[in-house]
């Protein structure tokens, strides 16, 4: 009788263990299936330009259009633009480029908000910019900080007004340590390619493109005035821009805009 009881107990225990294993396996498989998979995207490059150098950007488009490039133009001082300049912005938009915001009066967001508060900064530099540009057919979705001046409080507020915002980063550091790659965040950082920046170095920029290609990254660059002969501050030489576009194309990198990143 005692042996019979032991056998029954052992059988019940075995069945229970098997049932628990099956349930655990099913639960584990369900969790594995339900786990979201990170979307892959082709490696590439984003070229961005700040301020109100519309005539120069228009000339750059004429030069680089055969390469199939794309860029994002962050516009400020919109109220001072001529009809011809606004028409050129529309032309750039029609060519597949992004027209974006850089502040109505190019205010230093960090300094202004520290002195007058974030709400006043938004009302003085963001709201009028979006309204004026929307009136002319530019429904802007992204923003770049003037002077790269930002903090987390500003980021939080501006992301209520834009899909994606761009800060800045500096220095010629190893490609793997750079911050100028898209990492799936709504805050991104660009590395300057104006020739007065200390990191201006075309071979170095190419190492970033190589790294992007090898590691499925998207490099983000920014400049200002695109000119044939860069002899002042905040100027991106056209020869450098053309060389980087050609190199990116040779490497099979995709040209993105900032708005493209927001859609990823």
TrEMBL record:
Name of protein: Polysaccharide deacetylase family protein
InterPro entries tied to this protein: Glyco_hydro/deAcase_b/a-brl, NODB_dom, Polysacch_Deacetylase
Transmembrane region(s): none
Highest rank taxon of the organism: Bacteria
MF-aspect GO terms: hydrolase activity, acting on carbon-nitrogen (but not peptide) bonds
Keyword Signal among UniProt keywords: yes
Keywords attached to this entry: Signal
Example GO biological process: carbohydrate metabolic process
Location of this chain's protein in the cell: Secreted
């Amino acid at each position: 009788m005692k042996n019979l009881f032991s056998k029954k107990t052992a059988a019940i225990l075995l069945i229970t263990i098997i049932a628990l294993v099956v349930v655990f396996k099913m639960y584990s498989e369900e969790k594995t299936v339900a786990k979201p998979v990170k979307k892959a995207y082709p490696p590439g490059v984003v070229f961005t330009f700040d301020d109100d150098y519309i005539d120069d950007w228009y000339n750059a488009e004429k030069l680089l259009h055969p390469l199939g490039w794309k860029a994002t133009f962050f516009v400020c001082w919109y109220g001072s633009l001529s009809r011809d300049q606004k028409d050129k912005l529309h032309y750039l938009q029609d060519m597949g480029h992004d027209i974006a915001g850089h502040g109505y009066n190019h205010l230093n967001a960090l300094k202004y908000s520290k002195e007058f508060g974030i709400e006043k900064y938004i009302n003085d530099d963001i709201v009028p910019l979006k309204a004026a540009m929307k009136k002319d057919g530019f429904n802007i979705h992204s923003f770049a900080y003037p002077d790269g001046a930002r903090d987390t409080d500003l980021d939080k507020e501006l992301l209520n007004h834009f899909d994606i915002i761009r800060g800045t980063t500096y220095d010629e550091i190893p490609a793997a340590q750079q911050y100028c790659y898209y990492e799936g965040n709504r805050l991104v950082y660009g590395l300057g390619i104006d020739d007065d920046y200390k990191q201006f170095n075309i071979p170095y920029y190419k190492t970033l493109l190589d790294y992007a290609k090898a590691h499925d990254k998207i490099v983000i660059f920014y400049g200002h005035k695109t000119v044939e002969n860069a002899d002042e501050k905040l100027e991106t030489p056209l020869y450098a821009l053309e060389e980087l576009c050609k190199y990116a194309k040779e490497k099979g990198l995709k040209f993105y805009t900032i708005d493209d990143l927001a859609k990823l």
